[in-house]
Amino acid sequence: MTAGPLGGTQDLRPTVTITVDGAPLHARDGEMLTTALARQGLLRLRLSPSGGTPRGGFCLMGVCQECALHVDGTIRQACLTPVADGMSVERRGVL
């Protein structure tokens, strides 16, 4: 990161492409998956198994597991999973 024009920071990490539910999505290499999805407006990550209500990132530190989804065929917590080029993400059962 470097200083931005107004004193903030500017992310200079390279952009990578991941696949989310079969569609390409551009993200910053190494950013947390929850962040990459939220920047694209994808806040609903899964449905609750008991009531079918939408779930998304809540604690953002790996405790609540509300952001669990399928990453490269394995259930992972999106808030603890850094984005990598070619990653495949499935939000099964999401509205």
CATH topology: Ubiquitin-like (UB roll)
User: How would you write the strand order of the largest sheet?
Assistant: 4-3-9-7-8
Helix proportion of residues, in percent? under 10%
CATH architectural designation: Roll
The share of residues in extended strands comes to 25-35%
Overall CATH class? Alpha Beta
What is the arithmetic mean of pLDDT? 88
| Major sheet characteristics | 5 strands, mixed
Written overview of the protein:
- There is one protein chain.
- The chain is mainly beta and 95 residues long.
- It has a single domain, classed as Roll (Ubiquitin-like (UB roll)).
- Helices cover 7% and strands 33% of the residues.
- It has one helix and nine strands; from the N terminus they run E-E-E-E-H-E-E-E-E-E.
- The strands form three sheets. It has a five-stranded mixed sheet with strand order 4-3-9-7-8, with no helix packed on it. The protein has a two-stranded antiparallel sheet with strand order 1-2.
- The mean pLDDT is 88.
